[in-house]
Amino acid sequence: MDLSRGRPYLAIPGPSVMPEEVLRAMHRGAPNIYEGALMEMTYGLLPDLKMVARTQHEVAIYIANGHGVWEAALANVLAPGDKILVPATGRFGFGWGGMAEGLGAEPKYVDFGRRNSIDVEKIASELDADKNHEIKAVLAVHVDTSSSAKSDIAALRYAMDATGHPALLMVDCIASLGCDQFEMDAWGVDVMVAACQKGLMVPPGVGFVFFNEKAAEVRKVLPRVSSYWDWSGRAQPEMYYQLFCGTAPTHHLFGLRAALDMIKDEGLENVWARHEVLAKAIWAASEAWGAGGPFELNIADPAARSHAVTALRIGAPYGTALRRWTQDKAGLTLGIGLGMATEDDPGSDGFFRFGHMGHVNAQMILGLLATVQSGMVALDIPHGSGGIEAASAVLARA
Ligand SMILES: *Cc1c(COP(=O)(O)O)cnc(C)c1O
């Protein structure tokens, strides 16, 4: 029996569901890039991007995915031979650090495993031990999308400040921006990177680097920065084309305009609150199912869980089997287990993830959870009862 025909739901942690408003805004012919509406609209995006990042500082827009802005941010503050500290809470810290290595920097990884957020005291003691201040930057990931661990960035800044070490605090908010609370200025973040295809609900293709004065000073004294990645001209362009080092990503900008309008209309704090309630509904169902079977949230501590993505453990081969069932039988695509391979489970078949970032509401999450429960019944995966009731209660109380 195939029950998948109907509107599919792509519940992976990026790209996220695209709103009709975004799609409609993008559905148009090529605009004039030399004058008129597009230029005016783009300059108006900058204050709204800063609003979402909670910063008064600068932002540079790149035609790039998350990997592109990882490199853009690093290219503006690191020179070959520079030492950096990389707390890793899953796969993405290693990814960003690896990119820094490619640029000639020397990362030191502090691995917190796949089930924990950053222990800020460990980072502070690494900085304390660096008496000559050779470490130029700490590269932190706010929400690691593979483990769904969320780290306390304000606490990290506090611990760094207590050591008196001048290293820059650079944060990857690619999975968390527009989903989990993030306060660039209040939390003292020097550089932040994000992309458009997760909480910002736009197809992949534009990314952002936010930076403060301290980071701008570091940029100024670097002997050279590749002109395409250089953020100086992009943040303060004299000519519109400088903002993009060439042709603007016209349709993405129209889509982004529509997405930012939706966020402004709802209110950023309401966007965060919606993600929090939906995440709590997922946790409640997961805990009920886990009471009678192998279903388990990857992150035990609720304070260290993302509100945008949830990594789950269920044991091989159930993770992959369940994903296949929900997609083929019910039209629901779940995220694969990422970075979780072990000797016993080289294909990460015991893992999967829910993406619940951006354009997601209560009925979608209830549908997702009930579909997962149906899959567990169909596949004879043991699980506790009351998962849907527990999730409904969370939503009803909100
Ligand atoms: C998605 C993601 C990336 C990579 O972004 P791409 O657009 O796929 O290059 C990096 N870091 C985090 C935390 C992410 O969620």
Describe what you observe in this structure.
The protein is an alpha/beta fold. The protein folds into 2 domains: 139 residues, Aspartate Aminotransferase, domain 1, CATH 3.90.1150.10; 234 residues, Aspartate Aminotransferase, domain 2 (3-Layer(aba) Sandwich), CATH 3.40.640. The protein is 41% helix and 16% strand. It has 13 helices and 14 strands. The strands form 3 sheets. Strands 2-10-9-8-5-3-4 form a 7-stranded mixed beta sheet, sandwiched between helices. The chain has a 5-stranded mixed beta sheet with strand order 1-13-14-12-11. Strands 6-7 form a two-stranded antiparallel ribbon. Strand 3, helix 4 and strand 4 form a beta-alpha-beta unit. The longest helix is centred in the last third of the chain and has 23 residues. The two termini are 36 Å apart. The model has no long low-confidence stretch (mean pLDDT 97). The structure holds pyridoxal-5'-phosphate. Pyridoxal-5'-phosphate binds next to helix 3. The site of pyridoxal-5'-phosphate has 12 residues, from helix 3.
